[in-house]
Amino acid sequence: MGIERQLPLARGKVNRIEFELPYLYHSFLAGHRLVLELNSSKFPYFARNLNTGDEVATETEMRIAHNTAHRSMKHPSHIVIPVRID
C-alpha cells in the first residue's frame, strides 16, 4: 500500500500526510531498531519517479527532490506502532 497523489506537493509549505500500513507481524529482539525512510522515489524497486509531476511513464526530464520531515511543536510528527507483548 502506498500514498497515491495526483499533484506534487507545494514547494516550501508544510503538508500533512497520513497513511496506514498493512498489518505486519515481526518479532523484534532486544537491541533491534526500526528505520523510517522518506523519499520521493524507490527506483528500481518501483516505477521511477523523476519528480516533475508528469505522468510517470512519460517523463523525460529529471529533477532533484528535497524532502523534509518537520518535527517541532508547530509541526509535530509521530508514528503509532501497535505492539503485542507475549
Produce the secondary structure layout.
Layout: no helix or strand
Protein model, in words:
Helices cover 0% and strands 0% of the residues. The model has no long low-confidence stretch (mean pLDDT 78). The protein is extended, with a radius of gyration of 16 Å. The two termini are 28 Å apart. With 86 residues, it is largely without helices or strands. The relative contact order is 0.15. The protein has a domain at 33-86.
Number of strands: 0
Beta fraction of the residues?
A: under 5%
Low-confidence stretches: none
| Category by helix and strand content | little secondary structure
User: What is the global morphology?
Assistant: extended
Largest sheet: none
Number of DSSP helices?
A: 0
Key traits:
about 90 residues
Summarize the structure.
With 86 residues, the chain is largely without helices or strands. It has no helix or strand.
